[in-house]
Design goal:
The chain is 33% helix and 22% strand. The longest helix is centred in the N-terminal third of the chain and has 20 residues. This is Protein kinase domain-containing protein.
Length: 143
């Protein structure tokens, strides 16, 4: 599903829960493992306080596999970056910008209420709920 400095994210089938999940496999390097353990603590705090599970990505569990920290998440849709790319970087209709903005600010406010600061906000780290892409209408529709 994706790759970065820390490792990679894989789409997997959870046989016990009988659902698709995303597993972040963190490279077996001491500083990455330490950062992953901090991330797990933060994700557990977010999940504990987000009863509806709608403000932030939900951690399911984590495990250590051959010295790699593996964090199991609910599987969500594409990142905002992938959505933009798929739509050839077309401008969004104002209503869609408002909706993205509203949800993003709500999530950031939720984290701030828990005395947390997100230090890596970017389109690659903002996930859409659905994996089904919605085509952005052409600008001609708004003239």
């Amino acid at each position: 599903m994706g790759e970065g400095t820390f490792g990679r994210v894989l789409e997997c089938w959870d046989r016990e829960a009988r659902e698709h999940v995303a597993i972040k496999v963190v490279r077996s390097i001491s500083k990455y493992r330490s950062a992953a353990m901090v991330e797990i603590d933060v994700l557990n705090l977010l999940a504990k306080n987000d009863k509806g599970g709608s403000r932030c990505v939900q951690i399911r569990r984590w495990f250590d596999y051959r010295n790699h920290i593996c964090i199991v998440f609910e599987k969500l849709g594409p990142s905002l970056y992938d959505f933009l790319k798929r739509n050839k970087y077309s401008p969004f209709p104002l209503e869609l910008v408002r909706e993205f903005g509203h949800q993003l600010l709500e999530s950031v406010a939720y984290m701030h209420d828990l005395r947390l600061i997100h230090t890596d906000l970017k389109p690659e780290n903002i996930l859409l709920v659905s994996s089904e892409y919605i085509k952005v209408p052409s600008n001609k529709a708004f003239v």
